[in-house]
Amino acid sequence: MPAILTGRIIDEGLIGRDLPVLVRLIVLSLAVTLAANLIGVMESYFTTWISQHVTFDLRNKMFRHLQAMSHGFFMDSRQGDIITRMTSDISGVQQTISGTMTGILSNLLTLIIALVAMYQRNWILATLGIVLVPLFTLPTKKVGKTRWNLTREAQESQDEINNILNETLSVSGQLLVKLFVREKTEADRYEAVNRKMIGLNIRESMAGRWFRVALSTFSSIGPMLIYLVGGYLMIQRGADLTVGDITVLVSLLGRMYGPVNSLMSIQVDWIRSMALFTRIFEYFDLSVEVKNAQEPIVLEKVNGTVEFNNVEFAYGDKTILRDVSFRLESGKSIALVGPSGAGKSTLVNLIPRLFDVTGGSVTLDDVDVRALDLGFLRQQVGMVTQDTYLFQGTIRDNLLYAKPDATEQELEEACKKANIHDFIVEQELGYDSPVGNRGLKLSGGEKQRISIARVLLKDPAIIIFDEATSALDSISEQLIQEAMETLMKSRTTIIIAHRLSTIQSADEILVLSGGMVEERGRHSELLMENGLYHKLWETQSIDNGNSI
Length: 548
Ligand code: ADP
Hints:
Layout: H1 2-15, H2 19-68, H3 71-76, H4 79-121, H5 123-131, H6 133-137, H7 140-168, H8 171-179, H9 183-235, H10 243-285, E1 306-315, E2 318-328, E3 333-337, H11 344-349, E4 359-364, E5 367-368, H12 374-379, E6 381-385, E7 393-394, H13 395-400, H14 408-417, H15 421-426, E8 434-435, H16 444-458, E9 462-466, H17 474-488, E10 492-496, H18 500-505, E11 508-513, E12 516-521, H19 523-529, H20 532-544
Parallel strand pairs: 3-10, 3-11, 6-9, 9-10
Antiparallel strand pairs: 1-2, 1-4, 4-5, 7-8, 11-12
Helix pairs in contact: 1-2, 1-10, 2-4, 4-5, 4-7, 4-10, 5-9, 7-9, 7-10, 9-10, 14-16, 16-17
The chain binds adenosine-5'-diphosphate.
Adenosine-5'-diphosphate binds at residues 72, 75, 315, 318, 320, 338, 340-346.
């Protein structure tokens, strides 16, 4: 519209010397521009709304997908990679979505209208303008490919940066840096990756720049051609063309090249963001390894009998467990001993399906754990491990994680049983004391007892202690030992053991070596066998007094 009105202003108003028409046309032009701007505002709103919501959905979906990924995925992935994908990759595609969707629509519309209007004026000049269009598309593909590669590389550097940040700026990472005096090396390593990334970003943005120079050069040739040929037709051939017509054509050509330009840039951006999409979808394509059964079973009552039937487990082609079989009756306890790396943790991880067996089966109350509802199964298993994780938040928040609707009385009862209640009430804020980096600094033993209270609140039928006290001094150990005994009462228990007292009271001891059950029996029987258990016990008791 503005282009056509400009033509009429020249022909009818200026050359026709008609003031009232001129004024009317100018007013109309202003109104059209105003309307176009208002539409523009609406367009921006919708574009932003849509792109924000697409990324909102993408983020939620990705987060849910990650929640469903197996324990193995998190053990094998680098945290930085996951974070870059969740943050900058997804934000990167947001830009493309907002630019692309309405961009394609409005540009196509403008392009078609401009073409029709041009052909209505003069087909020779219109064709002349279009002839140049294919030139625009030439560099698109190449630029797109370059940017695809650069973007991918830049995001990989971003992964690297996030990894360095995660590793070196965490409490334990920073401690390591300080004690080994690696501050300078780490700073240099960070700077090197950072430098690589800016290099890539600059190259990426320049790849687009040359493309735009080429486009704008092509776009300035078109109008010149129309002036030249139009002028020639008008002056020499006396064609039926007015100055207004030529102005309109040139102006329409500008209107047409704009959308062609934009469509080509959109294509380049699109190819570039495919690099980001590819990274995002690589994660979506990862299959969920530990899946819920098709028709998951929920038991009405859980006794807590655990059985391993010829269990085999391998990480890739590295076999960790071979032919492990045992039956643990409800309410009984079993202790696992063996040299480090024997596969004790791996074995217990199979019960709540942190990994799935690669051969044989694990059953709970004689039902294969893979047939049970995953959430239900995990609800039945409590684990206390050596490194306890408490979320940022108050002690209460951390306890309620196990049972969100627990009453105050239940909380206190669990903490009393876990021998941590007295410690908590001594704190100024009691149960509302914050823990984590910016809160209370808890000792290993205190954390451990909170985690036992958390498991008590969960009230599982099966309880697993994985080296729960090995990092503690003997006073803390005493407190925890008592807490553990409360927890073990009337529950099926598996203890990866170290302290002799716990092992001695276990109903059965399995001695694991190289992923196989080498010996089994009670403490006194095993000692008499004079085998691996005897050897372990002897060496450990010399080093450690009464611990194994
Ligand atoms: P233990 O608890 O008896 O010390 P683990 O069960 O932790 O032994 O480990 C048993 C073996 O499995 C070790 O040799 C260890 O290197 C290997 N292992 C543990 N986790 C993984 C993993 N994610 N990928 C490959 N091998 C692993």
